[in-house]
Model the fold of this input.
Amino acid sequence: MISFKLSELASELATVLPDCRFESDGDDPIITGVAAIDKAQAGEITFVSSSKFVSKLKDTQASAVILDQKTPSTLPCIRTTNPRILFAKVLEKFYQPPIAPLGIHPTAILGEGVQLGENAAIGAYAVIGDRTKIADNVTIFPHVTIYNDVEIGIGTTIHANCVIRDRTQVGANCIFHPNAVLGADGFGFELSPDATWYKIPQTGYVIIEDNVELGCSCAVDRPSVGVTIIHKGAKLDNFVQIAHGVRVGAHSVLAAQVGLAGGVTLGHHVVMAGQVGANDRVHVGDGAIIGGKAGITSDVPAGASMIGFPTVPEKSWKRVVIAERQLPDLLHTVRKLEKRIAELESKLAE
Done:
């Protein structure tokens, strides 16, 4: 069993978070795991992520807690100005990842001219197309299908049942969760004179830069010409749809069920909450934040915080929501005034 004294854990983590410090009234517990504040037991360390959980500290059975620099605690703790990052680092110490495939499974199928780097691992029933290049330390789990002429960068992990279409380029240290599909045809059709839909060939390709993570069942489509690109460090949640010719900026974060129509461009560090949709070819500027279920119909300036359909600045949207809640009382007041006016008009007419 993995275990650390809390003080030792704090000292080790201080090498990556210099402001990390151990605090205690003399107790230095042995930490054997990590758990939620209401589930933790003796020997485990927990985490307070916001002020609404502070009240639970008095009832937790945890032996220690991860905190910011200000929240009071009677428990031994590790403090930092970045408690969520510290929490992630502690999880890495105790979490045992799933066992990856080792070597090339005998049921895997490799096409002609496939190039494999050192320590590449390919799981059962994976299919690798002709002339595909797989770099060092790539892990491919069972039932992955990779078409011809694909390039996979160093240290990338591709989980079960992913499909990567031809000519897709994948950078280093990416993670693709099960059932992600890269490079499928974009949704391109034109109505013919005979009233049938004519399919436009999708001849482009997809580029995924370094350190990109794609959630389960993400779809990143190829365009008719040119490229669809996810820039470095971007993180996409489950069921995100990236249409043909989209460009997702570096270190952007897209929550579940976001859908970007063809030609949309995002700047760097854009944040989109769940179920946001964006019309064709709109641009969202660097650092913009888009609230859940928003519909983007026009360009969003850099740094803006937008929500609603169509999107409006967050402050304006909040004022509208507050006003809507006052509508029943306002309607009641208007009706009373109308009645009073009618009474006064009746008296004047006498």
Remarks:
- The first helix runs from residue 6 to 13.
- Residues 319-349 form one domain.
- The chain has a mean pLDDT of 93.
- The CA atoms of residues 14 and 176 lie 31 Å apart.
